[in-house]
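Subject: Interface between my chains keeps coming out wrong

I've been trying for a while to get a sensible model of this assembly. When I model each chain on its own everything looks fine, but I need the whole thing in one frame so I can look at the contacts. Pasting all components below, labels as-is. Any help appreciated, I'm running out of ideas.
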Amino acid sequence: MTTLNPMTPDVQFALYSALKIVIAMAVLLSMVAYTVLAERRIAAWIQDRVGPNRVGPWGLLQPLADAVKALLKENLVPAHVRKVSYWLAPMLVMIPSLLALTIIPFGSTLGLQKMVIADLNVGVLFTFGVAAMTVYGLVLAGYAANSKYPFLGGLRSGAQMISYEVAMALSIVPVFMLVGNPEFSGWIADRANAWHPLLANTSPLNLNRVVAYQAGGFFHWMLFQQPLAFILFLVAAFAETNRLPFDLPEAEQELAGGYNTEYSSIKFALFFMGEYANMIVASGLIVTLFLGGWTLPWFGLNHPAATFAVGLVHIAVFLIKVVAVVVLFIWVRWMWPRFRYDQLMDLAWQRFVPLALVNIMITAVVLWAQ
Amino acid sequence: MAARRAPPANCPAAQSLNLELMQEFLFYFFAILTLVFGLLVVASPSRRNPAASVFFLVLTLVCLAGLFVLLHAFFLAAVQIIVYAGAVMVLFLFVIMFLNVQQESHRPRTGTRMALSVLIAGAIVALLSRALGAASASPAFPQPAVEGGTGPLGTVLFTEYVLPFEVISVLILVAIIGVVCLGKKELK
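Reply #2:
Try treating it as a single job with all components included. I did that and got this:
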């Protein structure tokens, strides 16, 4: 640093933020490309097929071929669509997942930089705000198509995502009740030296606090502290990302495709990429909230990095956990049949919401009794 | 309004100047966008299509959330997006799509309707200008009792204002019961 021109703090902040944004986007988009490949290969293995293995060694260059194909195909715009909405919808599907990425802590520190793009104190509320925006992309796509089946797909996605958003938001309340617990504030105060760079001036809604809570050990992971919340959140995440068993907005057999029927070439690919980006970001959120984030309870990896190398290891740990959850998403898709629409709604409103509320009550009583 | 707020005390002078300029710029950016989108809600270019109006209203609400952030009301901004832009507006969209509201676009612009609109708009302008005139232009912006964070807001809400808070929840309960009553074909 000393050899460089001295930079004012805001120039540094802007520069490093831009760098983090570019790298995080690049990693996310290449993960999207390879998740598509992984989906096809894993699906093939589950169905006792070979899958795409022609392009490059083990089919590793398949994403490149897919991208070229999507870009070069004829970009057909049907005559009856609503033009402005038709152009906007694919972009709107992609944007929320990129925005949600900004608050996920994907590592501890590298040098003096926190490995999170925007360290917000409203933290998880921002994620829900952004997730709430995802629905517009799909509803708008259905509306833009101006024909029967895509419209039904769009409406379905709207109802489904609103319902599961409620369940999802309620399911993680107990997690933040534990993190906001005064006992845990004492724990942080004890380790102020190690954690100070990450947790100074944070509120309990900040996602790095959740990670810090889980750093206490393997059984401090929210997965074990709040198993019910984990299950509710995981299932709601499947519904929010429109993955099987909840992929009703694009149920091919009933809707001739769904909200994206009228789309072709790169616009269709954007919906496809948006789905996978959403899935990866949701996995990142699950890892951060329930699976210890960038920490591991072993090898002294459970406190912020003191050296550059440990910082890199933390990022690697986070990415490996995310990949594991993404594989879970794919695995479930090829193992489960689709729910019926009324079952989907029943599950959200009659099972998940009451269960989440009970979980909040139980956690409150336990914390109060302590 | 945002630019008048004092910067945090520990900022170096140069940075606080930049911060103030940035805040001022962002205030005008969001304020102008809010007004433009707000205008487009009622004067949407696509032949008074109600669904387009809903989308412009969403954009208006998002810009308002930006203004809340500039006032350091982060929690309010997040709730604005989650509840209004994310949930309420989707319900609006649902109603419009399900009921297939197209009558509005065919309703003629009669003289009485125009006169009524002008009258209402004029009344609102008069009220606003009166309120602005009555407000003292004191440079000292009073420090609010609650700074935007979730914690202080929750504390105030559940101690000082707990009665109004609970009364509102009863109001919402009444609305839910009303919907159930209307929704059921025949009550047993």
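Reply #3:
Confirming on my end. Residues 9-369 of chain A form one domain.
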